[in-house]
Amino acid sequence: MKNKFISKLVLFGCCFLLFNNCSRETQETPNSLRPYNLSDLVFNLSSSSGSYGFAFYATADWHVVVSAQLENDDPLPAPSVTPQSGNGSSWLQTVYFTVPQNDSGSNRLFYLNIVSGEKSLTVVIHQLSGRGTINVDTDGLVFPSLGGSATVKVSSNIDWHTMAEDGWYSVSPFSGKGNQDTYVTLSVPQNSTAYRTSSVLFVADSAGTRVVLSQHAFSIMPPDETNLPREGDQTIEFQFLSTLPWDVTCDKPWCIPGKVSGAASDAILVNKLYIQENSGGTRTAVVSLANSANEKLSFPITQAGNMAFLHGTQWSGTATLSVGIITKTGSMTMTIEDETNITVRGYPGQITYLDDRTVKFRVTIGSITYEGITGKNITAVFQGTFSADYSRITGTLTGQGTVLGMTLDVSGTWLVSR
């Protein structure tokens, strides 16, 4: 009885195992397609030919489809692939592909597609060009006459550098790396000479592209003296250069330009300013030169006012002089005679400028003896500033003279009051 029970139990177990095995063999397994390493989905290759492998898992039968794209859409041979198909397996599988040498002027882009059932896996293959290419986003730049800078974008598949034709512009940076955009700044100073043009060459291997640079000239040279006396109508001259059409203005009615506009010129031009007599206080005007590019240069003209209230005034104080390592302080007296004449310690001088803030004058002495030392051919230039109530003048002086056969420079300060 016991043996009969055991026999039935064994028979039941065998049937169960048999049924279970049969069921497992007929059950469908889900298809799987995945790379062995995710980083292998993109290959960045040099221009040289070479063979490479891509490892993957595919549990269903698979085949390979290769497509290619050139950056300028020209046709090109696709990589060869082996094997081109295979059976599904739980084991790791590998396809090998070989890319040809890229001697074109463009980078190449390939797609290796592994198709397994309804699944697909794409491997991107990027191959660099074997020849240098370079592109700049402009072929010419016009710079302001007064100077400035401009930025260009440089793109190249290899390292590149620049070659400058002239030294009047700067380039920064002057080189760059391949396969990345680089922004290059070109800078120029003010052009005060003549219209100029040049170029800078951007070079990558045997490829190159040229950017033409140009700049107009624009400059102004004020009169030798812009601080004018008040009396009488006056005419002064100034010079300028403009290789673009120009116009001249003065912001005060008592300052009148001789020519108010003109055509572009490569030559330096001379213009006049007509200044009317000043019967009031000190006044200032601004003379402006503008070109057709809306650039502007200017300079001031200051005209002294009526300073008759200072005529005949007498002043006294001290002056400190330095000659080499010797410094001495002595007395100083002076009389402002009129608009143009002054007397300093009995020696006549000439006032070169006088307004309600400043006095400038020059004294020339043929020979003078001081403490037993004789100086000859002495010229001293004084510049002073009036106090607000015109009771005091403080200033500086420079000069030159001959002592014992030696020419010496003199400098110092002075202070006088009335």
Total E-strand runs: 35
- Helicity, in percent? under 10%
Low-confidence stretches: 1-27
The side-by-side strand order for the widest beta sheet comes to 28-29-30-31-32-33-34-35
Q: How many discrete domains?
A: 4
What percent of residues are in strands?
A: over 45%
Radius of gyration: 46 Å
What is the terminal-to-terminal distance?
153 Å
Mean of all residue-level pLDDT scores: 88
Q: Structural class per helix/strand content?
A: mainly beta
* Number of helical regions: 1
CA-based shape: elongated
Largest sheet composition: 8 strands, antiparallel, barrel
What can you see in these coordinates?
The chain folds into 4 domains: 95 residues, Sandwich (Immunoglobulin-like); 82 residues, Sandwich (Immunoglobulin-like); 84 residues, Immunoglobulins (Immunoglobulin-like, Sandwich); 110 residues. The chain is 6% helix and 58% strand.
Q: How are the SSEs ordered, and which strands pair?
A:
Blueprint (H helix, E strand, L loop, with lengths): L1 H25 L6 E3 L6 E4 L4 E9 L3 E9 L9 E3 L2 E2 L2 E11 L8 E9 L2 E9 L6 E3 L3 E4 L4 E9 L3 E5 L5 E3 L2 E2 L5 E7 L7 E9 L2 E9 L2 E4 L5 E2 L5 E9 L3 E5 L4 E3 L3 E2 L6 E7 L7 E9 L4 E8 L9 E11 L2 E11 L4 E4 L2 E8 L3 E13 L2 E14 L5 E12 L2 E12 L1
Parallel strand pairs: 2-9, 11-18, 20-27
Antiparallel strand pairs: 1-3, 3-7, 4-6, 4-8, 5-7, 8-9, 10-12, 12-16, 13-15, 13-17, 14-16, 17-18, 19-21, 21-25, 22-24, 22-26, 23-25, 26-27, 28-29, 28-35, 29-30, 30-31, 31-32, 32-33, 33-34, 34-35
